Amino acid sequence: MSLPSYGKLADNRPRWLQQLATFIRLVKRDKGGAFGMLIVILLIFCAVFANHITPYDPSLQNLREGKTPPAWFPKGSGKVTPSWAHPLGTDPLGRDLLTRIIYGSRVSLTVGVFGVLLACSLGLIIGMIGGYLGGRVDDIIVNVINIMLGIPYLLLVVVIATVLGRSLINVILIFGITDAPVFVRVTRSVVLRARECGYVEAAVSIGAQNWRILFEQILPNLVGPIITLGTLEMSNLIFAEAGLGFLGLSVPPSVPSWGNMLNAAREYILSYPWMAMWPGFSIMITAVGMNLMGDWLRDIMDPRQRRARR
Amino acid sequence: MEPLLTVKDLSVSFNTTDGTVYAVNNISFDLYPGETLALVGESGCGKSVTTMSLLGLIPKISGNNMSGTAVFNDGVSKKDLLKMSEEGIRKVRGGQIGFVFQDPLNSLNPVMTIGQQIAEPLMEHLKIDKNEAERRTIELLERVHIPDAADRIRIYPHELSGGMRQRVMIAIAISCSPKILIADEPTTALDVTIQAQIVDLIENLSKELNLSVIWITHDLSVVAGLADRVLVMYAGTGIEIAQVDELYDYPSHPYTRGLLGALPNPDMESSKRLISIPGSPPDIYTAPYSCVFASRCKFAFDLCHKELPKLVELGNNHQAACFIAEQLRSEYV
Amino acid sequence: MSNENNKTLIEVQDLKVHFYLKASGFFNRKRQAVKAVDGVTFDVRENETFGLVGESGCGKSTTGRGILQLIRPTAGSVRFENIELTKLGKEAIRCMRPKMQMIFQDSYDSLNPRHPIGRIISDPLVIHGIARRGSAELKERVSELMNMVCLNPGYVNRFPHEFSGGQRQRIGVARALALNPKFIVCDESISALDVSIQAQIVNLLQELQEQFGLSYLFIAHDLNMVRFISNRVAVMYIGKIMEMADRQTLFKSPLHPYTKSLISAAPTPNPKFERNRQRIILSGEVPSATNPPKGCVFNTRCPIAFERCSQEIPEYREVAPQHFVACHAV
Hints:
The structure holds three protein chains of three kinds. In chain A, 70% of the residues lie in helices and 0% in strands. Chain A contains twelve helices and no strands. Chain C is built from eleven helices and twelve strands. Chains B and C meet through helix 8, helix 9, helix 10 and helix 11 of B and helix 6, helix 7, helix 8, helix 10 and helix 11 of C.
């Protein structure tokens, strides 16, 4: 029996072509999402190929060229003439700001990606246990999460950072743990909702084992929300890392990171504002890009929504 | 007798990202004073859109297109409901035309007591003060048989059961002594015994208040006992209209026949099969250019796929939009 | 179709399913019982359709789930081909599942939106190790099943949302049939469908019954449909069976006042009959199962209730051969 439909042409193209067409339509419809994706791709490119695309070593000092303004700035009263040799200018030690910004994306991205991966793994495991088992275990998990979310975030981070000391691994650990509750919450609520779904009961009625139900029926529901949340959280972590760096609690000062750059630029913020401007801009654009992409991903992850919003 | 409401060539279409949806196409009907007209059809046939356009509930934004006329004759003047201003239609809606929807919990405001919700339109439409409005509210609640009406005015919608909420909706609908009551699947969400209560209530009210009722439903059984005339809709098109007995005795459109055949008759042996209509209703992405039912019709022939059949008069005020309606009707006689 | 000599397939004895509502709060552990099903007794024979009717919240769906052990009953016994299901462990129940299946009400909710329908239909076969995923015999069986329910086998790779409501319900039927069950619970399987589609599914169910000798527990609130499809019918009200008989007896000469009023409230597509019939219109609403009335659960709405009804629970007894009623007035 075929769907009798008059007026609307039946789509007889091969499946992959239809999917490609859908994807292109999705990109076209949501220009913001495409823009976000472009920024994220650019960021990844910078981080991966930082040593190939930058003209200088990030820690190469050149005191004579210190505090060079960006290339297009008027000559002004400064000692050093702006030039295209340092397009974004230099810091007080004469290190090229463009180079350091590009290298800084490495720290941001590493913290973002691995922090989210850690938080996400913890969140998925704990959330699935709580959501699927329910009862006392779930009660305990929920209460611990609520307590964790109740503690001021920054306070917790500062305490852990001072105790553990400054290193990239520690920063990732800190964010991985403090960000896990968000993932636990989302996972748990998705699992709880999915557990009540008719198709889970249908799976029980055809005799599916528990592990099958969890992995084949419930887990796929998590992919969309977790990827979306992961993207959004990544932008949050990049933000937070920069904040921590600004407070001097993130990676060691020798490592070029946006937060450290901000920290270093603080005392010059009135006289040489560009030193704080570039890392600030980078953080903002990254956050905007990831948020746009996250919103867009949320829409395309759900096959039902894909149809509804077509 | 002059009709109270004359709907002529009503068409409604919506532009969506999927294309234009032709929800209602050239629907025409009259509604006479005191009569109950049933609009019957399956989900997506445009029956709700029809009444929403009469109530001015279709947002007037670009992409929504509405044409045709719906002349409402309230005895004093004639006015076209489709061309009225926002302000004007608001006065008619809830004033001269009351309405009851399927899901009373969605139509009632959850943070207002039911007393406030009934009194408000009273004060607005009849320009009466608060005490008078409250007195009338209690009267109305008693009228729809809500026990302890004087106490019930102070409770919130969620504290009432589905049947009681529907009674409150009816009380609101009749509060300003309307001439027309539009009931959109008012009993679909209710249990059988509660459905019987509500049907009974609306039937009695329409007699007492000389109300004209437009009753929208998917269920040919519910309206069998209460409608005077029935209009059957399919894919946004009116395909058959007749007096109730005439329609059930001599269904002359293959779709109406299919609908009636699909309902089990109480005396039917279960070894028999129900008459089912193959396939499912079409998506309506083009204005109809041929018979909308042709793809599912067992009688369909060449012409049905080429030309749009018009409603033809079969006598006895019975009209059907089918090329072979006369033959089909004569089979019964 | 079936006759009284058919063997009993399922025997339900005094089945009780009680839920406990958890009071909110971490430390507050007081629990309130909802007696969703409270002592239900009936049997389903081979190759028969047993109808279960009642208003929403009467426990008819819970009864179906209790029989299939989707919800483990609180008390009572369910025997399937003389195997006591309530005493079986999880794994043993799992092994019984191929014999008893369910067709759900909401075809949209009961089909995983992320799986193509070929996978949905083949899942039961894979789970029970009958065929490997991706094997040729599995593909063949899926095509066979899709043909059986009149779906084009070319659509195996499509997703549920690409189908209409009626077609989705056919997918649900195909999944239930995959393991060659003997018994299928149809839980309001046609209520959400349009009238013309309902008839398609009912016809399909009847054809399949004749072909495979299936037994159905047909749960619905549409009296006319139950009357049409069932061999025997039980009427439920707040967790209890009020009356049970074969369909002729139940609909032609009902004894219980609730059955009488239900039948009189159900509209028929016959204007002349409808205009002239005397309806018994019950007053009031269905009481909640958390706080059911004392005595006979129906006494608060019963037109003929007398003193004893509000004090003593009427016994569910056989008043005529194969005609059971729970009422003091009968």
